[in-house]
Amino acid sequence: MMTILAALLSGLFWLGGTGLHPVAALTWLAPLPLLLASTRVRPRTVLGATALAWAIGQGGVIGYYLDTLRLPVPVAAGVVLLGLGLATGTVLLARALLLRGRTVLAVLAVPSLWVLGEYAASRLLPHGAWWSLAYTQADARPIIQLTSLTGVWGVTYLLLAVPIALAALRGSPRPALTCLLALLLGAGGWSVWSLGRAPDHAEPLTVGLVALRQPEDGLPIDEPTGRELLASYTARVEGLVARGARIVVLPEKVFAVTDATLPVLVAALAQTEAQVVVGAVRRQPGRATNVALVLAPGGAVTTYEKQHLIPGLEDWLTPGADDVLVGGRFGVAICKDLDYPGLVRRYRTRGASVLLVPALDFTSDGWLHGRMAVVRGVENGLVVVRAAAFGRLTVTDAGGRMVGEATAGDAEMLLAAPTSGWSTVYSRTGDWFPLLSVALLVLAVGGARWWPATSGSSGRTRPRRPADRA
User: Which residues form the CN hydrolase domain (predicted)?
Assistant: First the structure.
């Protein structure tokens, strides 16, 4: 009965602590009931309980995978099973080590399993680093500062290490408490230092963001509805520029243009003293691309082609291959590009301090996908100015502070955005933490395999047999 209760609690915590609108505190608690129960029952019981908990926890995202992202059923099932494998593997491996009295190894090494699972998914699946527990903490600025050192992998590690340490307090209070203090001092110290960083005194820049109602794949600019939308955007842009905007960012895929109709767009939006970044579908003979057009005062056009397209939804488009840096410090990217840490890291390496990002999103994932962009900024010390057609308009500084936010639909913002970024350990070194996790996982598996169980190690040293329960 207690095992079923633990499964239900963990499932509800995962349901509330992950998904499209997670409650950050619940993510830390999710594995804890299962971990506490695991040392009292047999492995197969733990396996069943964890499977039940994970199934409950995934209830909030199955519809998103199938209906919104339109993932094929086998792919959606694979994502769910990946999470199930990581959850069961983490709980069972922690159980094995705690029963052997290897508390420090359980706390500090077992979380590497989940880290490596997320990292493998980011490298092997065509979606980048979009599947990570770390994004659940995106509104907790002290926590996400760790990404500037380790990338998202360090936050995921912490989200598993803490509940394992809490579970170990019952049977091995001294080493468990030591591990908790070490984690607190390490992560907390880095956070305090990061939040206390003083950026250089670069002059802030007045930026405008606008998102009006639009279809998902761009209105042809030579059709009446396209001309009407262009007139509406032109009026909004001119109003923002009149109030001081020097850069205005519009969403992704606002218009559909050809070589013949592109001059119409340029003539309408480039006749101000500001740079305008507008997303469009550009159709040319034999290819169509998802582009961000940077329109300079006077009509000069710089074109960025989206490099990372959404599988299944954008297969009809041709991906781009080149980064675009405007004015030496403004990097340009589009929506899903920011699911790829390597792309953002390249911009930081080339000297960018601000990212200008037209985006789309799918309404239900507006918070989540917008916060992924926030995390990319913190990882690499970049200001992010992002306008999503069906999500959020956001401006964040290099430390992840939300300077301004609005919900798209018929929204605009005008604000003074910081322009100062800074180099981070992660922007210089990349994904070093998964490499460390390989070594930690080897230690964890070795400890579970070759160390015998010790009495008094973690509450109950062996699962109860039926006779014990009577």
Answer: 205-421
